[in-house]
Design brief:
This protein has one domain: Ribonuclease Z/Hydroxyacylglutathione hydrolase-like (Metallo-beta-lactamase, Chain A), CATH 3.60.15. It has 6 helices and 16 strands. One of its GO terms (molecular function) is hydrolase activity.
């Protein structure tokens, strides 16, 4: 399994001959190294409906006939664009041919703003547990710190956790460091920072706060094998 980070909250997983994109915010993302025209995902996983996470899902899915897995209300909305969607909800898991996807809770908000300014309810925000090739990847989505992260960690042997550290819209570095402790992940990767002025952070300071997990600070395009 190959995992790469592409700025903001964009994560790519290559496994079982499939390419999975999580929260593919590409156009408008000043930190990403990706171009929509070059990406060929088989699957898109979404944590919630905010535009900086749904991103370029519609164009990518239409162009590549990708399956979109999302919280059910968001999946229903995206289905109106003719996309192949799978709507899931918190606590639910599904086995696919590329691995298993399970949705966990996140504490945030979730709505999509259309080009004409309409605000569409996106259902509950979520985190994602992805399990494949005997490995478990946790993408926390946008969230504050919450105590059930300890339960998520106890119920799942997490190999790598992607945690937001930007503060302002999500938990900041101090809370994210405590989240890493609760999750007991082998490796932690900070995400959702430095994209916009309110979420400017120094990931090295976050790294200093984390105990018990390896912290991997990734630039856009960096990758590693699990």
């Amino acid at each position: 399994m190959k995992i790469s980070y592409h700025g903001h909250s964009v994560v790519k997983i290559t496994t079982e001959g499939k390419t999975i994109l999580i929260d593919p915010f590409i156009n408008g993302n000043s930190l990403t190294d990706l171009n929509v025209e070059d990406e060929k995902p088989d699957v898109i996983l979404l944590t919630h409906a905010h535009n900086d996470h749904v991103g370029d899902t519609v164009e990518l899915a239409q162009k590549n006939e990708a399956t979109v897995v999302a919280p059910v209300e968001l999946a229903n909305y995206l289905g109106t664009f003719g996309l192949d969607t799978v709507g899931m909800n918190l606590g639910g898991a599904k086995k696919f041919d590329f691995g298993t996807v399970k949705y966990t809770k996140a504490f945030h908000s979730s709505s999509y703003t259309s080009d004409d300014g309409e605000v569409i309810y996106g259902g509950m925000p979520a985190g994602i547990l992805f399990m494949g090739e005997g490995k478990t990847v946790y993408h926390a989505g946008d969230t504050e710190l919450f105590g059930d992260m300890e339960l998520i960690g106890k119920r799942n042997q997490i190999d790598v956790a992607f945690l937001p550290i930007g503060d302002f819209f999500t938990m900041g570095p101090e809370d994210a460091a405590y989240a890493a402790q609760l999750l007991n992940a082998k490796t932690v990767v900070p995400i959702h920072y430095n994209t916009f002025p309110p979420i400017k952070q120094d990931p090295q300071e976050f790294k200093k706060m984390v105990t018990g997990s390896d912290v991997r600070i990734m630039e856009a395009g960096n990758s590693f094998e699990l």
